[in-house]
Amino acid sequence: MKLTDELKSIKGIGDKTAANFAKLHIQNVRDLLTTYPKNYLTYEEPVSIAEAKEGERVSVLAVIGTYVDTRTVRGLSLTNIGIRDASGTMKVTWFNQPFLKKTLHRGDTYVFVGVVKMRNGSKCLDHPEYYKQEKYRDMMQEWMPVYPLTKGLTNNTFVKAMKACRSVIADMEDYIPEDIRRENGLMERSEAFENIHFPMNETLLRGAIRRLALDEFYAFLYDMGRLKEDATRTANTHPVVQGKAVSEFVNSLPFALTKGQQQAIEDILADMGGDGCMNRLVQGDVGSGKTVVAEAALYAVVAAGYQGAMMVPTEVLANQHYEEFTKSLSPFGVRVALLVGSTPAKDKRHILSALAEGEIDIIIGTHALIEDRVVYHDLGLVVTDEQHRFGVKQREKLSGKGTYPHVLVMSATPIPRTLAIILYADMDISVIKELPKGRKPIKNCAVGTNYRATAYRFIREQAEAGGQIYIICPMVAESDTLDLTNVEQYTERMRSVLPPDMHVEMLHGQMKADEKAAIMDRFLAGEIQVLVSTTVIEVGINNPNATVMMVENAERFGLAQLHQLRGRVGRGKKQSYAIFVNGKESPESMERLKVLEESNDGFFIAGEDLRMRGPGDFFGIRQSGETLFEIADLYNHADMLALAQKLYQAYGERLVPPENPGSMTGTTVL
Ligand code: ADP
Ligand code: MG
């Protein structure tokens, strides 16, 4: 077997399972092996029943104290037992496992593993795993990988498939020779794959993560290196001579630019009027007003007679920019168009031909912009959002559509200067330090779930006062393993809590693009008061009238991501509020969330999150919302990034990283 083999060649995987894997974009052995666990379960020392806390996954060593009772209720077979230890009792229930009556007996002792629930005042375990004591002792030595799942695909299937590919792992070659590995304390690549999927212990797992993080960074730098060579060779093929155009546009804005915005625009105009091709990054915290800088740059290019393209990570955001740009630029005769995945075929054809003919000046879109059939008349500037910054291949592809267009990248990722210098080695950087005048700092609170009732009253008051509210939930539909608040249920809940004349709607990634667009339009138009959403709205959405951001299960997000989320409010003149609900009864997660109360500064937040990370957080919670790196995290693995740079500088083209799809995906379009 080899990396490029189809999944079906793995023993035990048939058409149906292969189709389920395909839903996760896993088509061949390589895809499978580069799908890393998102977590690991360990089997802990059992606790006593008295110590078992509601909502926690626990192991209890207990004896079956009752007869095993199996009955059928509405077609569902229920097996009930009572278990006890010296400290107390618990009720245990299994569904549709009538055969348990034969295997389990009163007086037997097992270790039961499950999530504790409270029902009618007693502690219960539903559908727990159960093991004989000796077996459990062995399991305590193991780490159980937990893979991203989809309907019809169990973790067990994943594990089995991985196991079947162990020989491929063993045969993997390493592009980093042994002496270099030894010198830098790096694990061998095949050993890293072995240990990421089947970790023997914590030390090996850490070693594996570091090694794979290094590989991702290295592959990134390697690709960047090639891009850079291209860039240095290019003279300015699209000189933009500064006339009055940009200042007219700037004067037409309903506000005065901040110093940082002005400087960024000046930098851009100097680049585009200079000898070489522009390759510039504009870095500015959420809400600092990067969009208008991009708009000014695009307009300058159009006024000079070229076309401009702006690629953003989501359709929702593309729609929003399209509307803004149309409004502010059409008075200047600029023709703006939108191209996204869901654009109807007929319109697409029309747009594509207009683009090729030069009848469109600025095109805004998602990935759709880099499809092969998109041809430009004369593309002078490509603007991408930070998410794409990392998808080097994608950027290359879009840039390749013009003869060396200028490149402008917008980023809100608060990365420390030392890292920025490595990651953005090929770029000039403009930083927007200040927020627009007149913004009131967001008021923040991190609270427990018992605060919800108060929060709902507050939301109601805010809505009555004309404000709008975002509520973020981590998942879409109810999952049987995780008891997370989800968008659908939450929407219902809000409808019942709020008066009927307040409109509550939901937004999530599984909705159709036009449904999403319709909801966003109504939200922006003020027709919807409360928008319950997944993190689809994390990126870039701008509704200056929104005043409350409430995040449920906030403990499940990285602080940087929470900072991005709260950046959706506080964008207008009104006082805005962010409410972070800690869904877990844990002081540590609360302490982490409290950092958000202390500051509204993205750099500070990122630094604190790193500082507070305990040694037990392998993956931690991924800092940034970027999807470029599968495993590597800019903050956690800053040392690996530095090492990757060192190796690349020392050996460069001599160490050729294997194709690393993980580092190339760049984005997910929600
Ligand atoms: P981000 O940097 O997060 O992309 P946006 O570009 O979306 O921020 O801008 C956020 C909001 O601030 C928008 O409503 C925009 O119109 C407004 N804005 C931008 N620049 C200024 C400014 N100089 N003064 C006042 N409001 C501004
Ligand atoms: Mg933005």
Protein architecture, described:
This protein has 670 residues and is of the alpha/beta class. Helices cover 38% and strands 19% of the residues. It contains 25 helices and 22 strands. The strands form four sheets. A seven-stranded parallel beta sheet has the order 12-13-11-14-15-10-16, sandwiched between helices. α21 runs antiparallel to α23. Bound molecules: adenosine-5'-diphosphate and magnesium ion. Magnesium ion is lined by residues 290-291, 540.
Summarize the structure.
With 670 residues, the chain is an alpha/beta fold. It is built from 25 helices and 22 strands. Among the domains are: 44-141, OB fold (Dihydrolipoamide Acetyltransferase, E2P); 239-432, Rossmann fold; 443-599, 3-Layer(aba) Sandwich (Rossmann fold).
Task: Give the topology, please.
Layout: H1 15-23, H2 29-33, E1 39-42, E2 57-64, E3 69-73, E4 76-85, E5 88-95, H3 100-103, E6 109-119, E7 122-126, E8 129-131, H4 133-139, E9 143-146, H5 155-164, H6 166-171, H7 178-183, H8 189-197, H9 202-233, H10 245-252, H11 259-273, E10 279-284, H12 290-303, E11 307-311, H13 315-329, E12 336-339, H14 345-357, E13 362-365, E14 379-385, H15 386-389, H16 392-399, E15 406-411, H17 417-423, E16 428-432, E17 443-448, H18 452-464, E18 468-472, H19 487-497, E19 504-507, H20 513-524, E20 530-533, E21 546-551, H21 559-566, E22 577-582, H22 587-598, H23 602-612, H24 638-651, H25 661-664
Parallel strand pairs: 5-7, 10-15, 10-16, 11-13, 11-14, 12-13, 14-15, 17-22, 18-20, 18-21, 19-20, 21-22
Antiparallel strand pairs: 1-9, 2-4, 2-6, 3-4, 4-5, 6-7, 6-8
This protein binds adenosine-5'-diphosphate and magnesium ion.
